[in-house]
Amino acid sequence: MMRKYLTAAAAVLFILTSAGAELPVEKVNAILGIPLFPARNNWLYSDFRKRTKLRLSGNGDRYYCFYRKNIAGAQAKEIHIKTGGSPSRITLISITFATRGDDRLAAAKVTGSSRVISKNLNSLFGKSRRMTPDFSPVRIKMDTWKYRDAEIFLEVDKGEFTMLHIRIPLQEQPEKSVKKRDFSENLEKNDFGDVYIKNIPMVDQGGKEYCTPATFSRVFLYYGINLDMHHLAKRGDSDPKNGTSISEITRSIRSIRKKSGLEIMKFSDISINDINGHIDRGHPVFWLMFSTGELEELYDFSRKNRRLAKTPESWKRTLKKVSVPHRTTRSHICLIIGYNKETDEIAVSNSWGKAHIAPIWIPVKAAKKVSQNMLFVLRP
C-alpha cells in the first residue's frame, strides 16, 4: 500500500515538474545559459535589458541583437524581442540558431542544434507536446513546453533554420486588423519640410544577400504580421550569395498577403509626386535599385552634413554639388520611407542594422541614377 502511495505521489510530482510549476527560475536560466526568465514574472522591457545585459537595438515595439553564445546548449545567432503595452513589456522572444543563410553546413547544424535544445528543454519541463502557435502566419507544428505564464516553442525547418520562441501573453485589447488601422499615425514631420514614417522595425540581413526577405519582413512586421526573414528566404528560394528573385518572393507570399488584407501596387517613376501619397498614408515604398559605392558615400555625406544645414534652401544649394554616376551593378532593394518637397529628397532605409533605422536623405536626381525603375507598395 505504501508503495502505491509513493508511486502516486511521484506521478503528481512529475506532472507538476512537467508543467514547470515547481521549477525555480534559477535552474531554468542556468540550463538556458542566459537569464531570460524573471524572478517574479516581471516582463518589463527595461528590466529585461538590465537582467540580460543584451545590447538591443530597434524602434517601435521591435528590438534585436546579434548573439554568439550558447542558449539551451546550442550556439545562438540572433535574438529578437517584441514588446507591447504601457509600460513596455516583453510579449515574444525569438532566438535564431543555425540557418542556411549563415552557414554552408546548415543542414547538419540545424539538426544538431534542434536535438540539443529539445533534450535540454525536455529535461527541464518534461516531454514536449506538438501544437501550432498563433503568433505566426506560417502554420507549422512546433514542440511546445509551458513554464509559468510563458509558452516555449521550438521551430525546426530541416535544412533551413532552428528557432526558439518564448511567448508571454499580454492582457490588453486585441490588435486591430491591418485594414482597420490608421498607419498615418506613424508619420513624423518637422520644420525642415521632412515627412517620414517612423517605427518601421529593423531586420538586419547581416552578411547574407538577404536584402529582399529582410526588407519584406520589415514591412510585414510594421503591419503587425509576424513574418521572419528566414521564413521569407525559404519561400523566395533565397541564395545567401546570389540573393532573391523579386517575382518569386512576391508570388510565394501571395496567400499570406491576401489573407492579411494587403494588396500590391507597382509603379516605375521615382519622383516625389508618385511617392508622397503612399508615405502620407504611412505605407513604406519598396525600391529596387543599385547599391553603388558612390551612393553609400552619399549616405555618409548626408548623415554628417544635413543636420548642420540651417534652412532647406541652404541644404538644397549644397546638394547641387552632389552627384552619383549611373550604375547597373549590385542589385539591391530598400525602403523609401519619406520625402521632402522643399529639397527634392527622398528618405531611404536599408536592412543594414541600427545605423539605418533613422531615415537617410538623398536627392531624387541621385536616386534616378541608380533606380531600376521598379517600385511597389504593400498596402491595406
Topology at a glance:
Elements: H1 2-18, H2 25-32, H3 45-52, E1 57-59, E2 62-66, E3 70-71, E4 74-75, E5 78-84, E6 89-99, H4 106-125, E7 129-131, E8 142-147, E9 150-157, E10 161-167, E11 187-189, E12 195-197, H5 211-222, H6 229-235, H7 246-252, H8 254-259, E13 263-267, H9 272-280, E14 285-290, H10 293-305, H11 312-319, E15 331-340, E16 345-349, E17 360-363, H12 364-370, E18 371-379
Antiparallel strand pairs: 1-2, 2-5, 3-4, 5-6, 6-10, 7-8, 8-9, 9-10, 11-12, 12-15, 13-18, 14-15, 14-18, 15-16, 16-17
Helix pairs in contact: 5-6
Briefly characterize the structure:
The protein is α+β, with helices and mostly antiparallel strands. 32% of the residues lie in helices and 26% in strands.
Summary tags:
single chain; alpha+beta; eight-stranded antiparallel β-sheet; 380 residues; disordered N terminus
